[in-house]
Write a structure and sequence with these properties.
95 residues, mainly alpha
Length: 95
């Protein structure tokens, strides 16, 4: 199960990051075409683009968040089993 989800999470996360950076770049490019200096256009692109990316890429954001939650849940379970084994509890030992 984790072998199937790990590449999907990596792909979704990469797509989400690239989409948000492209959105910032497009906003900065449009502003620079209007005559705004490049540094100011980049700063405005960041301030406007990052929150706008949350709205525009909501479904991709939800997939990334769900994938990260599943991965963290699995890691927490494995950590709890390891701690149980280190304490000597029988719950963490396969029989």
């Amino acid at each position: 199960m984790s072998d199937e989800k790990a590449p999907q999470l990596a792909r979704d996360l990469t797509l989400y990051l690239l989409a948000r950076f492209v959105l910032v770049a497009v906003i900065a490019w449009v502003l620079s075409l209007v005559g705004v200096p490049l540094l100011v256009a980049l700063l405005v692109g960041l301030v406007v683009g990052l929150p706008l990316g949350l709205l525009l890429f909501r479904s991709l954001n939800a997939r990334v968040t769900a994938g990260l939650a599943k991965r963290n849940e699995k890691r927490a379970r494995a950590r709890a089993e390891l701690r149980a084994q280190l304490r000597g509890d029988g719950a963490g030992q396969p029989e």
